[in-house]
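Q: Could you write out the predicted structure for this multi-component system? I'm mainly interested in how the pieces pack against one another.
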Amino acid sequence: MSKYIFRRLVQLLPTLFGISLLVFGLMRLLPGDVVRVLVGPELTITPEQRATLERMLGLDAPLYIQYLRWIGGVLTGDLGVSLRTSQPVLATIVQRFPITLELSVLALIFSWIIAVPLGIWAAVRRRGAAEFTAQVVGLIGLSLPNFWLATMLLLGTSLLLRWQPSPLWVSIFVDPGTNLQMMIMPVISLSVALIAAIMRMVRSSMLEVLSQDYIRTARAKGLGETLILSRHALKNAFIPVVTVMGVQLGLLLGGAVVIEQIYGLPGIGWMILNGIYQRDYTLVQGGVLFIAVVFVLINLLVDVLYAYVDPRIRYD
Amino acid sequence: MREHDSFQRLTDDLRNQRISRRELFRRAALMGLGLPAVASLLAACAVPATTPATAPTTAGEAATTGPKMGGTSIWAAESDPVALNPITNSNFASTQGFEHCYESLTAYDAKLNIIPSLAESWEQPDDLTYIFKLRQGVKWHDGSDFTAEDVKYTFDIVLDPEGPAVWRSNFDQVDSVEIVDPHTVKFTTKAPFPPLLGAFAILRSSAIIKKGAMEETNLDSTIIGTGPYKLIQYVPQDVIELEKFADYWGAPLPYLDKVTFKILIDEDTRIAALRAGQVDYAFLTALGEQRLAGDEQLVLIKGPRTFLFIFVFNMLRAPWSDVRVRQAISLATNRDELIEKAMSGAGDISGPIPTGFGDWFIPPDELREKYYIEDLEKAKALLAEAGVAEGQKLDLLVTDFGGSGFYTGAGVVWKEQLARIGIDVQIRLVEQGVYIQEASPDGNWNYDVGINAFSPRHDPDGFVWARFFSENPYAVGYKNERMDEILPAARAELDLEKRHALYREAQEILLTESPMIWVSVDNIVEGLQPYVKDYEQSAFTRRSWALKNVWLDK
């Protein structure tokens, strides 16, 4: 297993190299450059002024030199500085990422707590209220735009309850109460779609497992339903669910940009998006690379988790 | 040689009734004071008054209902400064971020009068020379002393034709800056230059930075300034944390100990936070006004904003180079409908100089009467005369610059309006960076018309010079010989009456030739908690004056 993990980590390098080339190239292909954005839509600068600004931003070298400088820094752990704020990219990411991470993890946990029992119930009961609830929840969750829900929650809490959480971010380690208060509405907004997706996955997976021969055998042997569920069905049903979850966590970590923006959460998704608007090359490059690493690591984690969930899976 | 003059002497003479009104105007013009300043001077000299920079209560009142010192406050900011470098940033949001920490030689009060700031007084020995007496005892946030060296250092960077000052054009008539002594600076201009004093106050590439700051500090995210507040930290897209500067020259101001600007881009979030009492201030639009109407626990202040919304023609392209085509389009543009639909009615029609800007603008009534007349038949006739066929396409470049729904809404309304004269508007909604590129020399002016807005300018010149003086790149093909005479003359004319006449003529020409469609200025709404006292709204949406003078009654 450890050899497998090591092999996967080594594979990370060419992946990251490819991504670095891609993001570097794509950012430079965007119309409008950082100097033009800096200057804005109504000012003129002379070519000499442009040259000065480019020099200040490190953009005066040929493209391949800029790339090599950057990637050289990356290999030593230095992701450069933001072209707009001159703050170190890595420090900015490290400041932003925990916010998105916390939001994503809480959203997933919250969704799990609701979706899994719901999905199991819908699979086991199969008819009537359970089926109906499952369908409705599934439909609403997948159709409801999360930004609409976010705004509704905002207006609802402020109008009806005259309450809002503190607008100033505090870490969960510093002040868990305030932090969790701030997270309630964003988590709910993100969870609605997640709950629907997870619930449907759990339900369909459970249905398939419950129709397997070995379940019938267990029943024939006289095992109680609860025991069948907990000992045999759940673990098997969860393999596809774990996959879905891994993908979702990755997507969430890419940043629920709109939710972050609406609730004023300075997360990494909003950081990258704004960086694109500002043509902040180093910030976007660093941010995307970081997300890529995280995503690959999550996938690795999911694959390792498989090995525990499903003994048939071996990685030697 | 003209007599030496100073602000001090002028106020003295006025108070002692030694000069006539006409003389007042002449001397005021020499000092670059606009009419609002003169009006307030007249008002101020009628009663014994305190100068604006000291505490607002007079001695008699202090005992009972004086402002309270202290307190912390959270304010909701509507846009992210992105970076706080006062030299290289062009965006208005950046100024709104650093305006509480940096100062310049002059400043604006809430009524947009130019008042002394780091320069205590100034005089003009002749038309081309300004001697600024710098305020003494001013400290930088790091404890060192402010001197003329800092001013020289700053303006060496700003005036450098190869330097990074993006708003250098505001000072393009300045020839040199010299240190006379540690507290006196001399500015020499190439021609008489009335916009100079306002160019300091507007804080665009004009904030004074400490000598050596560009090389030694990170100007993008740290500030060493002289202003009433020190920057504790700036977290992009998150917060701007400010703390009272104890050694501020305007002490005991400011009243507040700590102010945190929380950046909330979404208006609904600001509304929710305001309603729940989590923020003490929020910038709102017509949307916010609707939502909060009738809320008795909040104070809403509404007023005009000097933001001029425009449609910009690319006159390098046919048929927009033909004045008849542009006139036709102006005749078919219903500005009131645009205000109604794209701005929720919260605006006022305007000409080339924004309605409400001092007394330089042509009043809306006159605009309606003479220039903004809807006449579709005449429009069609003009188009036919110019040889424009029915169904002529118009590439309309649009992006959402934020802060108003006008940009995206107006395109749709305008499309319908122009369809009535047979012009087919094709709306091209792009991302901001793309817009800036396409509507610039870098992008080869790739558009027919663009929707844009003028942010506040320090001088009427700011609304016309860059765009309508034919040698400037952003004139985009506009050339009118009379304009090419008027504009340089107007920006060098010290006599206020003559200056007014020149800009009046300029506006008339512009309204006739329509190189742009000027639509309107808009209104802003600012929401406050009732315990925030002495907040004064500024039509420039500049909050430096307000934040210096507010106090919390709790």
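A: Regarding packing and overall arrangement: Chain A has a mean pLDDT of 88.
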